[in-house]
Known about the structure:
By secondary structure, the chain is mainly α. It has one domain (8-99, 108-128). The protein contains five helices and two strands; from the N terminus they run E-H-H-H-H-E-H.
Amino acid sequence: xxxxxxxxxxxxxxxxxxxxxxxxxxxxxxxxxxxxxxxxxxxxxxxxxxxxxxxxxxxxxxxxxxxxxxxxxxxxxxxxxxxxxxxxxxxxxxxxxxxxxxxxxxxxxxxxxxxxxxxxxxxxxxxxx
Length: 129
């Protein structure tokens, strides 16, 4: 008959990162995730993604040494984003969802709107109206 239904993963970081991959650049998404989410949330998201999706598509999970530093978190977030892109490219993308009680734990802006240049471009578009 049909193929298996997609897996559903409840996680704020993964949902926002997947949204960022679809609507912004990887760099903007990385910065937004690291600036908003805690190191524990990012590490838990990484572990959850590899735990649920270890299906030959994702590379071996890299456990970074210094995930308490911004550089370490950026690298870990970059690993998450690359994994999401690989899952999407292979057609094996799970559905990332957020529980209603966790909606307040998501950044309200798109990742690209955090960038000052993007904000200026958006303001110019609004003024042109």
